[in-house]
Amino acid sequence: MLQKTLIVLKPDAVKRNIVGELISRFEKVGLHLQAMKMIQPTEEHLYDHYETIGQLASRRGEEILKINTDFMRSGPVIAMVREGVEAIEVVRKMVGSTEPKSALPGTIRGDYSHLSFGYTDKNNAWLTNLVHASATPEEAEKEVSLWFAQAEIYDHEMEAHQFKRGHKKSH
Known about the structure:
Elements: E1 2-9, H1 11-15, H2 19-28, E2 32-39, H3 43-53, H4 56-60, H5 62-72, E3 77-85, H6 87-95, H7 108-112, H8 117-122, E4 131-133, H9 137-147
């Protein structure tokens, strides 16, 4: 099943100048780019993302919500919509565990970060884990709509679909 998913490269990825490397991972696996932009999210936008959609304060407390929104406002982010077969699960697997210390080698967080919840909690630090990825189809639909206007999403044909049986390429 084809799915759209939201991926946000967080301020730490932008500041470290590794966005090209991270974007290329999604390209190499064949996920189709439908939208991308660099933005500085507002506090209201992030509240809608983390609480209205993600229920972060409801699950982990107001302090965690504030830490996350402060971190996400510390610099610009790159937001993108990617499409592919079971894209949400594919991207979550590529990104790795939320806690970088627990992320497996080969995942984005496992290869580019190492912080732990224990360290960040003890030192009142941000959990710099490089990337956000939608967790469910319902969440992806809401997040894509929050981050992108419909006119910003380009629904063009994936190259791989041009080679499906019975597909006729138009000239």
